Amino acid sequence: MHAWRGINLENRQLQLPVKTEQNEPPHTLQRKLKARHLTMISLGGAIGTGLFLGSGPAIHSAGPGGALVAYAVIGIMVYFIMTSLGELASFMPVSGAFSTYATRFIDPAIGFALGWNYWFTWAMTLAAELSAATMVMKFWFPHSPSFLWSSMFLVLIFLLNYISVKGYGEGEYWFSLIKVATIVIFIVVGILMIFGIMNGEAIGFKNFTVGDAPFAGGFLATLGIFIAAGFSFQGTEIVGVAAGESEDPAKNVPKAVRSIFWRIFLFYILAILIIGLIVPYTNGSLQGHTIMVSPFTMVFEKVGLAFAASVMNAIILTAVLSAGNSSLYVTSRMLYSMANEGLAPKIFGKLNKRGVPIWGLIVTSLVGMLAFFASVFGDGVIYVWLMNAVGVTGFIFWLGIAASHYRFRKAYIAQGHSLADLPYLSKWFPFGPIFSFVLCFFVLLAQNYQAFLGDHINWAGVMAAYLGIPFFLVMWLGYKFIKKTKVIPLEKCQIDFNEHRNM
C-alpha cells in the first residue's frame, strides 16, 4: 500500500508514494514493473527506425569511419546521461523524473518547461508513429484507407496502457525483444558473411578503403552524423520515468543503467561496422529511408533471404508500435506528476482503479489523432515543422538531466549527506554531467548548420530546425516571470534521504 505524503514545494504539493505493510490501494501508481521490464523499456527506447533506417544515410554521408566516430562519441555522452539519471532515479523514483528533479534542484521554472516540453515531444511522436504505422501497412496493402490502420494501432496501444502499468511493461518487453533479436541475428549473419562462412565469398575489409573511406565529407559530414546519432539514442531516458513504478527502484534502476548502455552501444557500433563492411558507402541506395533500401534489408537480401523486405517491414512495425506505446506511457505519467506538483491541471492527477492516469492517456491520444489528421488532410508543412521542433526538445531534456544531476550531487554534499548512502553512485562526477551538457549544447546549436552556409541564410530551414528552442525559452521565462521563481540555493534544495529510502 502507498500512503501519500505531501511535501511543500514553493506553495505546491508534491505527492510521493510511501510503502506500507499492506497491499497497494487501487488509486495510486502501481509498482509492478520488474527488472526485465525496465531493461527492455530502456533498451527498446533507443532501438528503432533511427537504427533500422537512419544508419544507411549516416554511413553514406560520412563514410563508415565517420559514422562510427559520431555514434561512438554520442554513445559515450548517452552513457553519462544514463548514469546521471540512474543516480537521480534510484534515489528519487518518481514518474515526473526530469520535471521533478529540475524543480527541486535547479528552479521550478526549469522543471515546468522541461515537463511540458517532454509531454509535447512524446505527444507529437505518437502522431508521427501513427502516420508511420500507416505507411508500413501500405507496403502490404497499398490501397487500404489510412484511417483504418492509424485508429486500429491507437486502440491497441491505448488498451495496453489502460489495462495497467504491467500491460505497458509486457507490451514494451515483447516489442523490444523482437527488435533486439533482429539486431543479434543481423550481427551474427553479418560476421559470417564478412569472413566468408556464409554466402561463399569473404567480403573482408575492402569496403573501408573504397573512395574516400573510411572517412568521407570531412569534419562537417561527421558533425551532421552527431546530430542523427543523438536522435537515434533518444528514448533511453524513459527508464527514469518508469522508475516511479518499478518494484524495487533502488535495485532495478541501477541494474538497468549498468547493462543498458553497453548493449545499446555494442548494438549500434557493431551494426554500423557490419553495414559499412558489407555495403560500400558509395552505394546510392544507402541514402534512402524506405524499407526496400534499409541497410538491414540489403544485407539480408545478400544472404539470399527472399522475403527480406517483408521481414524488415514487420520488424519496423514493431519499432513503430513500441514508440507509440512508450509515447502514451511517458506522457500520461509526466502529466500525472506535474498535476501533483501544481504544474498541470489537477484532472491529470486522477487515477483509475488500476492505478493508471487515464486523463493523460485520453488527452495525449486526442492530440496524436489531431496531428495525424492534419497530415492526412494535406497540412504536411506544419506537421514537418512540428516534428523538427520535437527533435530539438530531445536534446533539451538531456541538458536538463545533466544539470539536475550536477546540482543534486552538489546539494547532497552541501547538506552533509554521505555518498556511501546513495543507492547508485554515478562515476566520473563532475566530468560526466559537464561533458554531457557541453556536447549536447553544441550539437543542439549546430544541428542545422547547413542553413547558414551559402550566399543566403535558409530562414525556413532555421525556423524548422530551431523552433523548439524558443518554445522552451517561452515556457521557462514565462513561468519564471509570472511565478517570480529563483534558482534554489544548494542548502535549500529539498533532499529527504529517509523519505526516498522508504519508497
UniProtKB/TrEMBL annotation:
Q: Which UniProt keywords apply?
A: Amino-acid transport, Membrane, Transmembrane, Transmembrane helix, Transport
Show the GO cellular component annotation of the record.
membrane
UniProt-recorded Gene Ontology molecular function terms = amino acid transmembrane transporter activity
Taxonomic lineage: Bacteria, Bacillati, Bacillota, Bacilli, Bacillales
Q: What PROSITE patterns has UniProt attached to this entry?
A: AMINO_ACID_PERMEASE_1
Checking PANTHER family in the record gives:
AMINO ACID PERMEASE, GENERAL AMINO-ACID PERMEASE GAP1
Amino-acid biosynthesis: is it a keyword of this entry? no
Per UniProt, residues of the Amino acid permease/ SLC12A domain are 37-486
Question: Mainly localized where?
Answer: membrane
Q: What is this protein called?
A: Gamma-aminobutyrate permease
Which membrane topology term applies here? Multi-pass membrane protein
